[in-house]
Design a protein that fits this description.
Number of helices of chain B: 0
Oligomer: heterodimer
Helix content of chain A: under 10%
Largest interface: A-B, 24 and 21 residues
Helix content of chain B: under 10%
Structural class of chain A: mainly beta
Order of helices and strands of chain B: EEEEEEEEEEE
Radius of gyration of chain B: 13 Å
Strand content of chain A: over 45%
Number of helices of chain A: 0
Order of helices and strands of chain A: EEEEEEEEEEEE
Distance between the termini of chain B: 36 Å
Largest sheet of chain B: 7 strands, mixed
Radius of gyration of chain A: 13 Å
Largest sheet of chain A: 6 strands, mixed
Number of strands of chain A: 12
Shape of chain B: globular
Number of strands of chain B: 11
Distance between the termini of chain A: 41 Å
Chain lengths: ~110, ~110
């Protein structure tokens, strides 16, 4: 069965620190990849997505992610985090032409002001 | 995108009872889905709600336990039947317009069973 692994369950950073959240998946075929964010008290929102082309994708609020096919990874990065980035982040994998999403268990990011 | 409203937002229920969760979208959508997020775990797809026909359930989920309705293109319900403490979870509705496009999520229903 397909699986999505987010290795960091809880990350604590100070403002201006750099962020990298890991995401690995097990599906061997073509995939679409997503990062979702859930701010406290809010619903899941799309942060960025990768379908094809440039493996480095940019999303909202200064986030970016890099797809490395050989490593089955789609890590999320931000050069300098802000207190407002405190949220839970979910990686999701959608096998191409297959109408299902598989989610990681999420990473809680706590940014200290 | 769309505005997706789920009701109730949270509930505390007695063992053995059933609860129906509603998902209302402010525009017509092609696809509607129901997920469960158990404490400390990832989102797990329960079923795809099909308009005018029976829902398509994922492995481990059955219609008797999680009956789903989708009478039109903007509304769906999920019932959690004969609840036990193991059903304590967040239940999420999501919608999509085309295959392989991002899904959009409601706020979720936080359900606790005593």
């Amino acid at each position: 069965a397909q699986s999505v692994s987010q290795h960091n369950h809880h990350v604590i950073l100070s403002e201006a620190a750099s962020l990298e959240l890991g995401c690995n998946y097990s599906y061997g075929g073509t995939v679409n990849l997503f990062w979702y964010v859930q701010y406290p008290g809010q619903h899941l929102q799309l942060l960025l997505k990768y379908f094809s082309g440039d493996p480095l994708v940019k999303g909202i609020k200064g986030f970016e992610a890099e797809f490395i096919k050989s490593k089955f990874s789609f890590n999320l990065r931000k050069p300098s985090v802000q207190w407002s980035d405190t949220a839970e982040y979910f990686c999701a994998v959608n096998p191409y032409n297959f109408n299902k999403f598989y989610f990681g268990s999420g990473t809680k990011l706590n940014v200290k002001p | 995108s769309a505005v997706i409203s789920q009701k109730p937002s949270r509930d505390i229920c007695q063992r053995g009872t059933s609860l129906t969760i509603q998902c209302q979208v402010d525009s017509q959508v092609t696809m509607m889905f129901w997920y469960r997020q158990q404490p400390g775990q990832s989102l797990t797809l329960i079923a795809t709600a099909n308009q005018g026909s029976e829902a398509t359930y994922e492995s481990g989920f059955v219609i008797d336990k999680f009956p789903i309705s989708r009478p039109n293109l903007t509304f769906s319900t999920l019932t959690v039947s004969n609840m036990s403490p193991e059903d304590s979870s967040i239940y999420l509705c999501s919608v999509g317009w085309r295959d392989n496009q991002p899904q959009h999520f409601g706020d979720g229903t936080r359900l606790s069973i005593l």
